[in-house]
Write a structure and sequence with these properties.
Strand content of chain B: under 5%
Order of helices and strands of chain B: HHH
Radius of gyration of chain B: 16 Å
Structural class of chain A: mainly alpha
Radius of gyration of chain A: 22 Å
Chains: A mainly alpha (204), B mainly alpha (100), C mainly alpha (904)
Strand content of chain A: under 5%
Largest sheet of chain A: none
Shape of chain A: globular
CATH class of chain B: Mainly Alpha
Helix content of chain B: over 70%
CATH architecture of one domain in chain A: Up-down Bundle
Number of strands of chain A: 0
Helix content of chain A: 55-70%
Oligomer: heterotrimer
Number of helices of chain B: 3
Largest interface: A-B, 97 and 78 residues
Structural class of chain B: mainly alpha
CATH topology of one domain in chain A: Four Helix Bundle (Hemerythrin (Met), subunit A)
CATH topology of chain B: Helix Hairpins
Number of strands of chain B: 0
Chain lengths: 204, 100, 904
């Protein structure tokens, strides 16, 4: 049991436990709390996968942004203190059954795949099976520069290594621009939707 | 820890999200299910980035997903608020006007 | 063309006389809208004005003709010539002026100038006529079979077209013809409104307009009871037994009278046979309107229908004739008078008769060659000689004569005319004298050249049968108007007989004279009926002369005229003096006694006497018009019989009928005016008609008495003779194997005296018998009736003609109709019913099939789709969470399927 494994278990357990907590919690506020636990643990997992920038982004955006938004939503849509929105037990059972089946299905699928062979096939035979054979930057916490370069259209992880293949791989400048515009539109639409307007009589 | 462990965690998160979506009557709970599903997928991406030839691409995609999830959360929240305005409740079962 | 201006003048005058009644009709028929009430006589007076003006124009036209064509000179010649002939024949000496028998002389005279004809030529003509007469009298078949031999002999009175229009010959008879308006032209066929004016037209116009005027004036009085808003028709009943009340139709009556006159005048002036047909039908329609004037009475409407339908039977023949004429000749025009000076095609008469008036018959081939009017045979467009089958010509003649039979109520279509008495009496007068029935005789006369000898023989026999048949019926009927109706039929028979026996002028002569005295008789009977409050049965009258002196006297004139009484050897001058003195004495007596009712009668007698005195032409016989005309016919018949002994009936029947006529007419008069009143009620309420009714009676009685003065040397006869068709006076014709010798004028003259005597004897004996039975009451009519009950009932049932037709046509028609009904009912209807039932049945099944199967299928499909849709719709719960669940389940399911089916 290495140190790394212990950390992984802690993060993995808390992520899964948080997720289950979200599922099982009956109150929204508690669900939000369990969600923070889960998302934070996932950020830990990212760190363990050497994706330091993604992990940071996870914490900043999710925990700092999205969850705050959710909590705002909870507060804005809070009904009376005695109003409980309960799920019927039959649905819970059904959901659990389906969920478990799905979990086993996915797990079965994951198990049934020979990942090394698959990686070898997808990489055209270059990939050698074994841990850490993927993107393995030279030092941890050093993924910001490559990510920024990739978003600007350069792939130092691929293009710099092999001069004869330079220019063949592509960056993410164009998706980046599309996503930025998309986000702008989304945010404008969201602010439009959420703007204060005269409350209408409920139809139901 | 190998790829499969991470994939298992992703699967658990994903399934939890799905079950959450399928069982929560609260609209905000539903959103949380969506976040969980997205996170499950993100874990997979980053794990593939680490353990396969996917490389940096996985991380970039996960970044996109995170950003889009944030935007999605904003939009979904405004929808939820509108729903609440219209129905005076956040119970999604009440929003069945489109039933056949 | 000679007489161009004269022709124009006459045409204009006659056209105005013709169209005035139409104008009157157009105005009067709307009188009902113009007048607020039914009390105004304005429309009637307008009608009288129109027809009166028409009479003035017609007389003016006649005068114009007489003056401009030098007719007086011709008349003097003809009259003198006639007198010479008569004298010569009577004295038995050879006809004066034995000249040569050369035909040159005849031809000279034939083509020559009548106005400057001198005795010499005339005598030479007579001598040759004498010869030909001898030949006819011998009736030598060998001679008779040579038609070309002597048939120019007595063309004295035959004016063929060439003769009439020889250039530069100013003083001669004239015919005017032309086109008013071209209605249409179909290929070669032209439908024109044309006029054809000769002396016959002129005389007819004057006669018709004069009589119509008298009748119009008479009707002013007679129809006066229609001048009310509430006319009670005592002979028409509603179903509840009440009398019919209706507004008076005074104006309408006169409107129809006007239309009637217009139609008749149009028929007379018509220049082609088609136009004649059009007006012929118009006359029929008008008579229909007027006979059915009291339309509320069943009998009247039935009579109108009967008249109309029986006329249609005749018109069917007429139509056939028209078709034959059109197909064979290609024209309807009568004749083109001015052929020599124009390039117009010849008319019908010129096509069928050569310039010598002969038919160009090829007996071998049985065809008739058509002529072009210039003495040559007509060429067709291909250059062949145009011809037509002889039998077709006979068919055309018989067809047209069929129309005449219907119109003139000849045997066998005579039964409509007595029923037509249902109309008002003025209508009867008009129908029976001047218009309707006259139209038939007029057409027969006008169309004379088209009739072959066979057709003429048929005409003669039809006439002979008719005249006898009608006269026998007239002896027994008791309705005053019915007697006159049968008398009319009988007299029309005389006319047809005369025409059929080659006595063209005699037949039309009788038409004119008969028109006068028959209209007089009818108007008199109308006066009697009006006086007796619409009592028409003679047995309820009697002794009316004391109450109705003017009517009675006028009627006596008419009766004497129609009976044909004459006083041989006594001139009218002498009788006139006697009558004049008698009238004066009567007048003085009346004045002395202060009896004002006698004065009009005395005045009438004085007028008659004066007329007799001053109008006498001294031809040695005192007789009224009817004698002269009937005498002419009987003489023709006698001559015909002498030449053709086989046709005895054609002489015997008219001779007997002459006696019968006198009998029934005097029976009527005695019954009505003499003896004791049989019905005191009728007698007491009877009073003389007003002047508006008696005036026309007096006027007509004068003309009825004297219109034929001079007989066959008189003005009327000579005038008519001028229009006689050319070359028909003495032909010898072959009818089958029988040879017919057709009498010429001279032949007739030779027999005139004996025929006249025979007819007079017959008439006098008839009169005497009537006088003994009804005047003196020596023999009780009831005794005769009972002793001859069989004959009487036979006659009073009108020879059972109605019953015969009922049996012959109605019953079979009914039987056939019943069979047809039965067939209809049991075969066609049954089949149709079966068919409809089958259709119904099939459609029921079809409907079931449709509803159950086709509709079921479609509905099933629809329902299934709908239920599938709605069941899917059930899935669409609107629940977001369920959708998520579905997705999850679906993913699981898909994966399971994948793993199961694709284990790798």
């Amino acid at each position: 049991m290495t140190y790394e494994k212990i950390l992984f278990f802690i993060f993995a357990m808390s992520a899964c436990g948080g997720a289950l907590g979200v599922v099982l919690a009956q109150r929204v506020a508690r669900m939000a709390f369990w969600l923070i636990i889960s998302l934070g643990s996932v950020a830990g997992l990212y760190f363990m996968l050497h994706a330091d920038f993604v992990a940071a982004t996870q914490i900043i955006i999710y925990v700092g942004g999205t969850l705050v938004l959710l909590i705002f939503g909870i507060m804005l849509t809070a009904t009376g203190p005695h109003v409980k929105i309960q799920t019927s037990p039959g649905e819970l059972v059904m959901g659990a059954a389906v969920g478990l089946t799905l979990l086993f299905l996915i797990q079965g699928t994951v198990r049934s795949v020979d990942w090394n062979k698959a990686a070898m096939v997808t990489s055209g035979g270059e990939f050698q099976p074994g841990e850490g054979k993927g993107y393995n930057p030279t030092g941890q916490g050093n993924t910001i520069r490559p990510l920024g370069m990739a978003l600007l259209g350069l792939r130092p992880d691929k293009d710099l290594g092999a001069p004869e293949e330079a220019g063949l791989s592509s960056g993410y400048l164009f998706p980046f621009e599309i996503v930025s515009i998309h986000l702008l539109v989304v945010l404008v639409g969201a602010s439009y939707l959420a703007r204060a307007k005269q409350r209408t009589r409920p139809t139901v | 820890m190998g790829l499969e462990s991470y994939l298992l965690v992703g699967a658990v998160l994903f399934v939890s999200g799905v079950v959450c979506m399928a069982t929560k009557r609260n609209g905000i709970g539903l959103l949380m299910g969506v976040e969980l599903v997205l996170n499950g997928a993100n874990v997979n991406f980053v794990a593939f980035s680490r353990f396969t030839t996917l490389g940096l691409d996985g991380q970039i995609v996960s970044l996109f997903v995170i950003v889009l999830a944030a935007a999605e959360a904003a939009v979904a929240l405004s929808i939820a608020l509108n729903f609440y305005n219209n129905h005076l409740t956040i119970d999604v079962d009440r929003g069945d006007e489109l039933k056949g | 063309m000679p007489y161009e201006t004269t022709g124009e003048t006459i045409k204009t005058l006659l056209t105005m006389a013709w169209l005035l009644p139409l104008f009157g009709f157009g105005v009067e028929i709307f009188a009902g809208y113009w007048q607020r009430d039914r009390f105004s006589k304005a429309a009637a007076q307008f009608a009288v004005g129109c027809i009166g003006l028409g009479f003035l124009f017609s007389s003016w036209a006649l005068m114009t003709y007489v003056q401009d064509t030098g007719w007086s000179v011709r008349f003097e010649h003809e009259s003198a010539h006639h007198a010479e002939l008569v004298t010569a024949i009577e004295e038995g000496k050879p006809l004066p002026g034995h000249g040569g028998h050369d035909h040159e002389g005849h031809n000279n005279e034939h083509n020559g100038d009548h106005g400057h004809d001198h005795g010499e030529e005339g005598h030479s003509a007579i001598s040759s006529e004498d010869t030909s007469l001898a030949q006819y009298a011998i009736a030598d078949p060998v001679v008779a079979e040579k038609p070309g031999h002597d048939h120019h002999a007595d063309h004295e009175h035959a004016h063929d077209y060439e003769n009439e229009h020889s250039g530069g010959h100013v003083e001669g008879p004239a015919v005017f013809s032309g086109i008013y308006y071209r209605l249409a032209s179909f290929g070669d066929l032209e439908i024109n409104i044309e006029y054809y004016i000769d002396t016959l037209t002129l005389v007819m116009f004057t006669m018709v307009t004069f009589i119509a005027t008298c009748i119009h004036i008479f009707a002013l009085g007679y129809m006066a009871d229609e001048l009310t808003d509430d006319y009670v028709d005592h002979q028409a009943h509603y179903s509840n037994g009440k009398h019919v009340h209706r507004p008076g139709r005074f104006y309408k009556f006169f409107a129809f009278l006007s239309l009637f006159c217009f139609s008749m005048l149009g028929l007379v002036i018509a220049g082609n046979i088609f136009q004649v047909f059009v007006f012929w039908e118009l006359v029929g329609v008008c008579s229909y309107f007027l006979i059915g004037f009291y339309v509320e009475r069943k009998s009247a409407s039935t009579a109108a229908n009967k008249a109309f339908i029986m006329n249609r039977v005749g018109d069917f023949g007429f139509l056939i004739g028209l078709m034959v004429i059109w197909t064979s000749f290609g024209t309807f025009k009568f004749a083109e008078p001015d052929l020599a000076n124009t390039d117009k095609p010849a008319g019908l008469f010129q096509m069928i008769r050569g310039t010598d008036g002969e038919l160009d018959v090829d007996n071998e081939a049985g065809v008739v060659y058509l002529q072009d009017g210039h003495g040559e045979r007509l060429k067709t467009a291909e250059g062949n000689e145009a011809s037509m089958p002889y039998w077709l010509l006979v068919v055309a003649g018989l067809g047209v004569f069929g129309g005449c039979i219907g119109k003139s109520a000849q045997f066998p279509l005579q039964t409509w005319l007595p029923d037509a008495m249902e109309g008002p009496t003025p209508v009867s007068a008009l129908v029976h004298s001047a218009t309707m029935v006259a139209a038939g005789v007029y057409l027969a006369g006008r169309f004379y050249p088209m009739f072959t000898p066979e057709v003429l023989l048929v005409i003669a026999y039809v006439g002979a049968i008719t005249l006898f048949l009608a006269a026998t019926i007239a002896m027994v009927v008791t309705d005053i108007k019915q007697v006159l109706a049968y008398s009319t039929i009988s007299q029309l028979g005389y006319m047809m007989l005369g025409l059929g026996l080659f006595g063209w002028a005699a037949g039309l002569f009788h038409l004119i004279t008969h028109a006068f005295f028959k209209s007089l008789l009818f108007l008199c009977s109308g006066s009697v009926i009006a006086a007796c409050h619409h009592e028409q049965e003679m047995p309820k009258m009697g002794g009316l002369i004391r109450k109705l002196p003017i009517t009675g006297t006028a009627m006596l004139v008419g009766v004497v005229a129609i009976a044909g009484l004459s006083i041989p050897g006594v001139s009218f001058g002498l009788i006139g003096n006697v009558v004049l003195v008698l009238g004066l004495i009567l007048g003085i007596l009346a004045a002395y006694k202060g009896d004002k009712t006698q004065i009009p009668m005395a005045a009438t007698v004085v007028v008659v006497g004066g007329l007799l005195t001053f109008t006498d032409i001294a031809n040695g016989k005192a007789a009224l018009s009817g004698f002269h005309s009937k005498d002419a016919i009987v003489a023709t018949a006698l001559t015909y019989f002498k030449m053709n002994p086989a046709h005895l009936l054609l002489f015997i029947l008219p001779l007997i009928t002459a006696g019968l006529t006198a009998f029934y007419m005097f029976r009527l008069w005695f019954y009505t005016f003499l003896g004791k009143p049989r019905d005191q009620h009728v007698y007491d309420h009877c009073k003389e008609s007003p002047l508006v009714m008696t005036g026309p009676l007096i006027a007509l009685s004068v003309l009825a008495a004297f219109c034929a003065i001079g007989g066959e040397g008189g003005k009327l006869f000579v005038m008519l003779s001028e229009s006689a068709p050319a070359g028909i006076h003495d032909t010898i014709a072959h009818v089958g194997t029988v040879t017919l010798n057709l009498p010429g004028h001279i032949d007739v003259l030779r027999n005139h005296a004996s025929a006249g005597n025979l007819a007079t004897i017959a008439a006098f004996s008839g009169t005497l018998i009537a006088f003994m039975i009804y005047g003196l009451g020596l023999i009780n009519p009831t005794d005769i009736k009972s002793s001859l009950s069989g004959v009487h009932s036979y006659l009073s049932n009108k020879w059972y003609f109605d019953e015969l037709y009922d049996t012959m046509f109605m019953k079979p028609a009914h039987i056939v109709a019943r069979y047809c009904t039965a067939i209809d009912k049991w075969v066609f209807d049954a089949f149709l019913h079966w068919l409809s039932r089958a259709t119904l049945w099939i459609s029921k099944w079809d409907r079931m099939f449709d509803e159950k199967f086709v509709d079921g299928l479609v509905n099933l499909l629809g329902t299934a789709t709908f239920s599938v849709g709605s069941s899917f719709g059930k899935l669409q719960t609107g629940q977001m969470r369920q959708y998520v669940m579905f997705i999850a389940v679906a993913v699981v399911a898909l994966s399971v399927v994948l793993f199961v089916w694709f284990p790798h």
